[in-house]
């Protein structure tokens, strides 16, 4: 009888082996499905980028250009981001190559809108949204959208109406821009963070029958079976479960991909086709995952092969030594030193190596701390359950800690990421150049008057009292102080300056530096230009700045020298929360494709990206918690079944089941809490160090950092939930069966 036939017979006759095989299959299925999803992420981001490539600037082309192109960002009334693309055909529109999802080029004054934007336009007053784009003449297809909910407008113009920032290019930008680097990096981290707990789940399932399998295989060895026959039997038994699990994971992976399409990233969800993985990588994952499990099972037979008598008779785990703690402070000190000194690429690489050393040292020290906690229970127990739990933790700390080892990596990585993200969110900001609520468009000075006039006409048509103001850019004096060209009253209401009541007098120059000499004042359009002298009688009055981005001086346009023109500037319009969308519509419609900016819009964009990263991190932590909890639960059940004789004898001696269940819950929960809290503290400290390397700001700790504690509690609850059922099964079976 060959190894495969023996494995089938064992699976048919031994119920516990069947349960173990099914759990191994589940673990391999989870690992396979997760790998298929995570490996497909870079391709998914590339598919997104390919669909949206036409929305980006292409290669400028003066000769043979078929269209002028400019792209900008806008904001919808609900705060969603709008991608606006303005084009003007320089040749026959029929000869312009169009990207998928666009059936024609819009004529001047027309716009093609994405379905979501068209729906928003239909349900929003025109003064708040629709009049920004012109006449809606069609809908963009899904192949032209980065994600299904994307708000995109393709607006047509005549060539002479395009802004100066427009780029002549030969058609739209083609696909092939590459994957999202950040999400690709997160996918690589996720492969490790989620696959390791999956493999721990498989290992826990394999250990569910560890003691019984070792006795059975040792009996075969003592009966004359060769090592090759023993390996063949275990390989066949594991391969049946692992191969079935891999096929199950491949079968359910479409459901997991469908669930992944609902997770927002970069402003929206995904198309179902984004996560399609090629045949070759899919086959490699489906084959490699069970192969690794089989190899691990064969490698674990070395004690049975070398010492079958020892395996049959059991063995006492060796005590742990204090040297397991040494790597933890050493790696921590090395990491702290590199944080303080890292400047070169080599030191940055060493910093990452030190971070990995911290993770490894946590895994190495975990069983030692488990043994210490067990010893404390043994010495200071007050109830029998405490003594039983302490003896288990002290005598077999490796086995007690093993189930939570996979969670250590997930908690450490997640807490580190949350610390960095929270600190980055605290440092997020945008230049506070204008007063709160102000919207502005930057352009060359010749365009400013046209944009301001068009904006004011629209504002008057909408019945608003706000008016657009042109603010020029210049440089004043020998020190080339950055100066804004605007009248005093507008400066006080729009810029982040306090004019100190100086607007009551004659127009002049306003600056925080009272020692400026009128005789030496010059004004220049560009930094470094020699400048044109101002009249000697131009008054200089004091002002103060109220933000670090405030100008160093303000000059009234009425005192500019004859012939002086600023090189550029901004059209600025104040707004209130009640009329901001109407003001934006007036400014957008007059800007002709130039981006309308505001501090609030920039802050919203930063917050959205940080929220995406936090969401992905928390999802990964929750998945790791579920996998870790299942591993801990299976390990707990396995430890009960491995100690059937002990528990049966205790029950026969009159020990209540509730006392044994309480002891099992303690020995299952404590390692989980030690692992998660310890990894959480270490991840927070490492996150603070990494943030200090890239930013000089202060760290920000938020309630998100409580996720590891929740993770530990969840793992402990899942692990302890199987104690009572497992003990009842032991109680129901005759002790003589063992």
TrEMBL record:
Coiled coil: none annotated. Residues 191-300, 621-733 form the ABC3 transporter permease C-terminal domain. InterPro entries: ABC3_permease_C. The keyword RNA-binding does not apply. Keywords: Cell membrane, Membrane, Transmembrane, Transmembrane helix. The keyword Membrane applies. The chain crosses the membrane at residues 21-41, 181-209, 230-255, 275-301, 322-340, 352-378, 399-421, 616-641, 668-694, 700-719. It is a multi-pass membrane protein. It holds the Pfam family FtsX. Its main location: membrane. This is ABC3 transporter permease C-terminal domain-containing protein. It comes from Prauserella isguenensis. The lineage of its organism: Bacteria, Bacillati, Actinomycetota, Actinomycetes, Pseudonocardiales.
């Amino acid at each position: 009888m060959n190894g495969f036939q023996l494995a089938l017979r064992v699976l048919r006759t031994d119920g516990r082996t069947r349960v173990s095989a099914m759990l191994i299959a589940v673990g391999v299925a989870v690992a396979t499905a997760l790998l298929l999803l995570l490996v497909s992420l870079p391709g998914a981001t590339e598919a997104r980028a390919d669909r949206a490539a036409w929305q980006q600037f292409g290669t400028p082309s003066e000769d043979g250009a078929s269209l002028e192109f400019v792209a900008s960002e806008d904001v919808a009334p609900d705060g969603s981001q709008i991608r606006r693309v303005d084009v003007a055909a320089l040749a026959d529109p029929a000869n312009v190559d169009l990207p998928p999802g666009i059936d024609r080029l819009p004529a001047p004054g027309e716009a093609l809108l994405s379905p979501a934007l068209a729906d928003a336009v239909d349900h929003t007053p025109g003064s708040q949204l629709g009049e920004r784009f012109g006449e809606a003449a069609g809908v963009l297809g899904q192949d032209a959208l980065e994600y299904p909910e994307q708000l995109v407008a393709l607006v047509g113009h005549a060539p002479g109406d395009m802004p100066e920032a427009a780029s002549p290019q030969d058609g739209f930008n083609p696909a092939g821009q590459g994957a999202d680097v950040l999400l690709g990096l997160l996918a690589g981290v996720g492969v490790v963070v989620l696959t390791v707990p999956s493999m721990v789940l498989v290992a826990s399932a394999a250990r569910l029958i560890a003691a019984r399998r070792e006795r059975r295989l040792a009996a075969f060895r003592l009966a004359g079976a060769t090592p090759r026959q023993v390996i063949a039997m275990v390989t066949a038994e594991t391969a049946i479960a692992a191969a079935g699990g891999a096929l199950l994971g491949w079968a359910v992976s479409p459901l997991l991909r469908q669930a992944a399409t609902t997770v927002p990233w970069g402003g929206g969800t995904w198309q179902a086709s984004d996560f399609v993985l090629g045949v070759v990588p899919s086959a490699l994952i489906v084959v490699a995952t069970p192969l690794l499990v089989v190899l691990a099972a064969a490698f674990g037979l070395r004690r049975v092969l070398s010492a079958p008598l020892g395996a049959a008779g059991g063995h006492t785990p060796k005590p742990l030594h204090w040297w397991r703690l040494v790597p933890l402070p050493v790696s921590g000190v090395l990491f702290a030193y590199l944080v303080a000194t890292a400047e070169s690429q080599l030191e940055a690489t060493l910093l990452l190596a030190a971070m990995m050393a911290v993770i490894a040292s946590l895994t190495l020290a975990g069983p030692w701390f488990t043994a210490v906690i067990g010893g404390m229970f043994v010495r200071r127990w007050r109830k029998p359950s405490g003594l039983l739990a302490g003896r288990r933790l002290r005598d077999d700390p490796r086995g007690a800690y093993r189930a939570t080892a996979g969670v250590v990596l997930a908690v450490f990585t997640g807490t580190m990421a949350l610390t960095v993200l929270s600190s980055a969110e605290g440092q997020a900001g945008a230049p506070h150049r204008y007063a709160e609520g102000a919207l502005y468009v930057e352009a060359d000075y010749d365009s400013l008057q046209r944009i301001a006039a068009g904006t004011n006409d629209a504002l008057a048509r909408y019945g608003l009292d706000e008016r657009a103001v042109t603010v020029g850019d210049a440089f004043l004096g020998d020190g080339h102080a950055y100066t804004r060209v605007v009248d005093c009253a507008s400066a006080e209401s729009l810029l982040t300056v306090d004019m100190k009541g100086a607007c009551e007098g004659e127009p002049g120059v306003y600056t925080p530096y009272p020692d400026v000499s009128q005789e030496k004042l010059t004004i220049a359009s560009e930094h470094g230009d020699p400048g044109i002298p101002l009249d000697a009688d131009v008054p200089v009055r004091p002002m103060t700045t109220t933000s670090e981005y405030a100008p160093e001086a303000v000059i009234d346009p009425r005192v500019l020298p004859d012939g002086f023109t600023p090189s550029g500037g901004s059209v600025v319009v104040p707004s209130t929360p009640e009329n901001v969308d109407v003001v934006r519509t007036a400014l957008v419609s007059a800007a002709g494709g130039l981006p309308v900016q505001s501090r609030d819009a920039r802050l919203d964009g930063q917050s959205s990206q940080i929220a995406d990263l936090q969401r992905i991190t928390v999802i990964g932590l929750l998945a790791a918690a579920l996998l870790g909890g299942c591993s801990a639960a299976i390990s707990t059940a396995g430890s009960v079944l491995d100690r059937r004789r002990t528990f049966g004898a205790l029950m026969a001696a009159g020990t209540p089941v509730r006392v044994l269940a309480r002891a099992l819950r303690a020995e299952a929960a404590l390692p989980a809490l030690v692992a998660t809290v310890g990894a959480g503290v270490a991840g927070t400290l490492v996150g603070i160090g990494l943030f200090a390397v890239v930013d000089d700001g202060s760290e920000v700790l938020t309630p998100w950092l409580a996720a590891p504690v929740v993770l530990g509690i969840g793992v402990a609850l899942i692990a302890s939930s199987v104690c009572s059922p497992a003990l009842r099964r032991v109680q129901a079976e005759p002790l003589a069966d063992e």
